[in-house]
């Protein structure tokens, strides 16, 4: 029997309201536990692809299955459950800067609670313990009570990773998570993602602009150009010149 995939795109197209083609005839299957890196020029459709997985963007046609569930027309509770299963981290971290690291991490519990409870800061002791554990996974436990804006960019991104851990995600999507970081912090963030992938079996999908990092961290690399998948190889078959070709073509 074929292993059950965790993400599956079948003939997916996305045309934005202004007529821009975001995705064109995407067929892609991701297995549980893969560390998939998506590369391509700016505007190639990497973010669109990623945001179709958690339905921040709805495809215009085709089918997207996440953990066996068709997600393209989910609403309400079912959509919230999808977004609980699929954690996301962003280039600009999306933390609430003027509050503590602990509160930011705890807010990852939001999909489990009615909003009023999280607004009133009514977290349980068990939640607070889980938040401390999540921060410990990214080696930032000592920053628990600091304000988020007192941390470096790399540390803020790792707090964002700890926040997604509160959701107990099966998948983490990372949309250019290291674009604004220096090389050393970049490595800390990528190492955290790799650790969660290897130790917890979380499927990771990362959009990256860096060819060396893609080569170092991916199990598999897919390349996009003008909304289409133009490359899909396991890491042992990827060459640097393949990737350079994806970046050089216009
Ligand atoms: N909300 C939107 N409305 C209209 N067009 C959009 C929208 N979002 C993205 N696009 C367009 O869709 C195409 C794909 O964009 P997308 O952001 O997915 O590319 P990307 O590969 O992630 O680029 P980058 O590396 O710069 O983030 C681009 O032409 C972009 O301008």
Automatic annotation (TrEMBL):
<keyword id="KW-0472">Membrane</keyword>
<keyword id="KW-0918">Phosphonate transport</keyword>
<dbReference type="InterPro" id="IPR012693">
    <property type="entry name" value="ABC_transpr_PhnC"/>
</dbReference>
<keyword id="KW-0067">ATP-binding</keyword>
<dbReference type="InterPro" id="IPR050086">
    <property type="entry name" value="MetN_ABC_transporter-like"/>
</dbReference>
<keyword id="KW-0813">Transport</keyword>
<keyword id="KW-1278">Translocase</keyword>
<dbReference type="Pfam" id="PF00005">
    <property type="entry name" value="ABC_tran"/>
</dbReference>
<feature type="domain" description="ABC transporter">
    <location>
        <begin position="7"/>
        <end position="250"/>
    </location>
</feature>
<dbReference type="InterPro" id="IPR017871">
    <property type="entry name" value="ABC_transporter-like_CS"/>
</dbReference>
<dbReference type="InterPro" id="IPR003439">
    <property type="entry name" value="ABC_transporter-like_ATP-bd"/>
</dbReference>
<dbReference type="GO" id="GO:0016887">
    <property type="term" value="F:ATP hydrolysis activity"/>
</dbReference>
<protein>
    <submittedName>
        <fullName>Phosphonate ABC transporter ATP-binding protein</fullName>
    </submittedName>
</protein>
<keyword id="KW-1003">Cell membrane</keyword>
<dbReference type="GO" id="GO:0015416">
    <property type="term" value="F:ABC-type phosphonate transporter activity"/>
</dbReference>
<dbReference type="InterPro" id="IPR003593">
    <property type="entry name" value="AAA+_ATPase"/>
</dbReference>
<dbReference type="GO" id="GO:0016020">
    <property type="term" value="C:membrane"/>
</dbReference>
<dbReference type="InterPro" id="IPR027417">
    <property type="entry name" value="P-loop_NTPase"/>
</dbReference>
<keyword id="KW-0547">Nucleotide-binding</keyword>
<dbReference type="GO" id="GO:0005524">
    <property type="term" value="F:ATP binding"/>
</dbReference>
